[in-house]
Structures are given as structure tokens and as C-alpha cells.
Amino acid sequence: MKIIIVGAGFGGLCAAVQIEKQLGIDDYQIFESNDDVGGTWYANRYPGAACDIPSHSYSLSFEPNPNWQHHYSYQPEILAYLQHVAKKYDLYRRTQFSVHVDSTTWNEETHMWDVIYTDKKNGKQSHTSANVVITGCGPLRVPKSPKEFENFKGAQMHTARWNSDIDLKGKNVAIVGSGASAVQAIPEVAKVAGHLTVYLRTPPWVFPRFNFEHPEALKSVFRNVPGAQWAWRSGIWSANELRILLMKRGWIASNVGKAAEWGADLLMKYYVKDPVLQKKLTPNYSLGCKRILVTDDFHHSLTLPNVTVITDRIEKVEKDAIVTKDDRVKPDVVILATGFSTDQFWNPMRVVGKGGVDLMDQWVANDMGPLDHYLGIAIPEYPNMFHLLGPNTILGHNTVVFMIECQVELIVQAIRDLMKSGAVALEVKKDVVKKMSEEMPS
């Protein structure tokens, strides 16, 4: 049984550990497009990059870390954690870095996946085959960059492709975006920029992060008291699960949501005294319609004398300026904090299943609507292929690492059944997928 895993982030590393630990399979290979493990935590290196889920919950259950420095960890520490996991479980030896997987095609004669991949450093294309393919590409991978910014000829970068060679000190900087990357980067950029213009079309609902350093005494308890870290982790997970009330319907959820909106508005006005700016920063949609953000310094940074907030639509981008209805700003540097194309689960990798059907073509033909799938993991007509954090599995209230581990457990069970049965292929039934799709809330 040969297995190929695409991606060496949380999902790929978790899958690799469990298929070897639980199934005894050591004939597997990980393909990673970056130069090291880490996935999104390798790629996203912008100032202030951090996780908005507490550290002890945003980690693998089989590899707890009692030494997290902060309640909410920053990018360097999360990357170091994933590197530790890869070293401990000897995954570096099984990983090919700087490799782009061009295509995976189901071979109906051999009942295997034919995989074509390219070495990004020398351009050499190679071919291999596998009985099973697990994709852990990750949703926060393909930067979303508005096309109009191609007109801008000055220095420009996306937060997911941060260029530390671009000096922001004393410069006129523009940041476009209002998501998690934006609210983390803005306070840090404001500290060094001569002037910062923030293009904030849709203000987010923001709650305090209350981040703090874990005292050495607490870390000692986690290291030495059996069950202490598990109890802490479980408490965090349970508290985050209550956030789902903010996204549900009904009288109780509605009133909980209204109370939370009132609290968030009160917090914003505590930091922001200017009525005009308050109006700009007040969301015009209900809590839960977009990801709820946590930060301790975002609103305060917008009140600094060197920061201007513009909420008008960007009408056009010129070679040296950003133009809105009332403003024409000429920045030295443009930073796009415009998020990711989270619907591009596999692109630019081609996935071709039975009958030569291309998975992304199939999805596009469905107007990027709901794709028939089973728990976001398996799709009819694509046997022996499993996906991590596939359609409808991204959480907006709790840790996706928990979701990844649940999905990996199901994948391990499926591969075990495949091995025990002696069958050459395993494929989810269409009627099962149809039933699940009908039961899924729209």
C-alpha cells in the first residue's frame, strides 16, 4: 500500500503520523510546495501574524506542547511546533520540498493514482503512482489579489507573500482588507509607517483577545501534573463551542448574539472616541455572518495620528495612486490583506477521476455551488482519494485542528477497511452523498 500526501501543514503531518502509527504503513511520501513544513504557518510571515484560537487547542492531541509561550501563539512559535512534530516523527525523511503537484489522475487499468509533479528549483517533471492520495493542501494557500492592483507600479505585496526586503519605515503605506490578516498587520505596520491608509470596506466584528504569556509556574503544572494540560485544553475547546450560539437561529441564540454585538460595540467605542470613525467601524450585518475576529490593539491603532481609515469603495487603481469617491492616495507601498481564494481547494493541481472528469471543472460547471461530497473528505467518482478540510468543513468558531484529527481518523478507518478487504479501490456511494447533501442546512 503506497500513499501520497499532498501538503505538510497540520493536515498532512497529522495524516502521516496516524497512517504509520495506526496502520503500520511506512510506504508513504509527502509532497510540499514550500521549502519546509508548516503550510500556512510557513507562508504567512507578516508582522503580527498569529492564531486566533488559543495555543493549547490549536495543536495536535497526540503531541501536546506544555511550553506554549502565549495563550494565543504567534506564527514563529506555531511553525516551530510543526517543525518539532516533523522531526519527532521522522517526517522530514519522507517529505520532498519545493515540489509542485501538477496532476493526479485515476488510472482505471491499474486502479492507482498517477501523480505528476515538478521540482520548483530545476523545473524537472517526474511521475509516480500511489494506491491512495490524501490532499492536505489547506484553504489558506492561494492569495486573493484584486486584479485592479495589477495597475499599481510601486512596491506591493500580499500578506501571504510578505517581502521583508521592502522597508516600511517612514513610508506612506496603504493596507487593503478587513479580515484576520488585516487586523493583525495594521497595528504593527502603523508603528513604523510614516502614514498608514487603511481601506476598510466592511468593518469586522471584533472581540478582545486578552492574550497573555503563560507563566513558568503554569507551564510547570502542564509538564508535571497528569491531566492538567488536557483539562485546560478541554476547557478552551468547550468555551469556543459556545460561540456557535452566535451563529444559530432561534430566540436564545438571537438574544445571545444581540448581547455580544452590544458588548463589541461598547468595546470599540471605548477605544474610538471620534463619532465619524465610530460609524465607519460599526458593522452593518449580524454577528456570525463573517468570521469573528479577536484582537487587543486593532481599534486603538486606527486612532493613531498617522492612520487614516477609508471605507468608500475603491473605484480604480492607477500606476501610483488608489482612487475612491472622495480620496486619491499615492502610497509608496501597497499591502493587500485581501485574504485567500478558499474555494480553490485543489488548484492549481488537477484532479482527474473516473471517466476523465476534472474535479475543478466539475465544480465550476456547478457554478462553484455545493459539491457532492461525504463529510468534505470523499467525492464520488474519485476512489481512494481523501481530502482534509474540504468543502463545508472549515469552522468559524473553534479549532480546525480538531476537525483535521476527526477527518484523519475516518481516513485511517477507510484505508484499514481497504487493506482488510483486499479490494483495489474504495469509493463513497452516490446515494449516501445525496442523502447527506439533502440533510445539510443550506
Which helices and strands appear, and what pairs or packs with what?
Blueprint: E1 3-6, H1 10-23, E2 28-31, H2 40-43, H3 75-88, E3 95-96, E4 99-107, E5 112-119, E6 125-130, E7 132-135, E8 155-158, E9 172-176, H4 180-192, E10 195-199, E11 206-207, H5 216-224, H6 228-241, H7 251-271, H8 275-280, E12 293-294, H9 298-301, E13 307-310, E14 314-317, E15 322-324, E16 328-329, E17 333-336, E18 350-352, H10 359-365, E19 385-387, H11 400-421, H12 430-439
3D structure, described in words:
By secondary structure, the chain is α/β, with parallel strands linked by helices. The chain has 12 helices and 19 strands. A 5-stranded parallel β-sheet has the order 3-2-1-7-19, covered by helices on one side. A 5-stranded parallel β-sheet has the order 8-17-9-10-13, with helices on one face. A 4-stranded mixed β-sheet has the order 6-5-4-18, with no helix packed on it. α1 links the parallel β1 and β2 (28-31). α1 (10-23) runs parallel beside α11. The longest helix is centred in the last third of the chain and has 22 residues, at 400-421. The two termini are 38 Å apart.
Keywords:
single chain, 442 residues, alpha/beta, 5-stranded parallel beta sheet, 12 helices, 19 strands, 18% strand, globular
TL;DR?
The chain is built from 12 helices and 19 strands. The chain is α/β, with parallel strands linked by helices.
